[in-house]
Amino acid sequence: MRVHLSVIPGWKPLLAISLPLLLGIGAVAGAYAFTSATTKAGQTTTATAATAAANADVPAPAGLLVHVVGAVEHPGLYRMKRGDRVYDAIAAAGGLSVDADITRLPNLAGRLKDGEQIKVPYAKGTTGATVVTRTNLNLATVEELEVVPGFTSAFAQDVIDYRTNFGGFQNTRELVDILGMSEADYVIARHYLAL
């Protein structure tokens, strides 16, 4: 079957006039569509880049946030690493104060949890006065040193050996500088030691 298109007489001049006009309208519409899409994508990209840049300036806090209160040197909020122990949080707060009751301490080996509050109790006598027991580093026995927070049985023996071989300690800082006690242990132990 053959289809015949009826042609309008004088269609060639009409085509010559309307074709450039249709092409121009198509070009303007295409340019508008392209510009609109690019601007929206550019705005989205710019907004995303601005958000990323703002986040890059302020890194997300890492680790745990814990609140240490009670008988510590500097109570307050502390940012700790995951896996840290209660012992580390107390050390971060400056260690136990001389007012701490070492017989009622929280579990020092316990793992910290985000948002946890560590309460270190104060030692109180019957009259309400603070009771502090200090152990003389140059006179104490192994058994007396073992109960000092931060001391192990082996470290207590190292202290006795050092005293025997070198004549005693001039200051408590020698526990760190000479015997290699950790800074965290020393921060807690120093409040319970005397010379």
Structure described in brief:
With 195 residues, the chain is mainly alpha-helical.
Report on the structure:
The protein has 195 residues and is mainly α. 43% of the residues lie in helices and 10% in strands. The chain has helices spanning 11-57, 86-92, 142-146, 153-166, 174-177, 183-189, and strands at 64-70, 76-80, 117-120, 135-136, 193-194. A three-stranded mixed β-sheet has the order 2-1-3, covered by helices on one side. Strand 1 and strand 2 form a beta hairpin. The relative contact order is 0.10. The model is unreliable at 126-130 (pLDDT under 50).
The total count of helices amounts to 6
Q: What does the oligomeric state look like here?
A: single chain
User: What is the helix content?
Assistant: 40-55%
**Count of individual beta strands:** 5
The helix/strand series, from N terminus to C terminus, equals HEEHEEHHHHE
Beta-strand fraction estimate = 5-15%
What is the approximate shape? rod-shaped
Largest sheet: 3 strands, mixed
Straight-line N-to-C gap? 119 Å
Radius of gyration: 39 Å
